[in-house]
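Long-time lurker. I teach an intro course on protein structure, and each term I like to show students one example going from raw sequence to a predicted 3D structure in token notation. This year I'd like something fresh instead of my usual example. Would anyone be willing to generate the tokens for the chain below so I can use it in lecture? Attribution to the forum is fine with me.
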Amino acid sequence: MNNNTKTTLKFLAAGLVAAAMVMMADTTLADVVNAVLSGN
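-- Reply from a regular --
Happy to contribute to a lecture. Here you go:
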């Protein structure tokens, strides 16, 4: 592979990781909000 291909793969991998983190964070945030609302 050339440098451009490696760089592209790195960006794609970083994007997937970031998307997964955002999805997990959103789910966690929603769970926390639901817990707080149901607690009150």
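Some talking points for your students: The chain has one helix and no strands. The chain has a mean pLDDT of 85.
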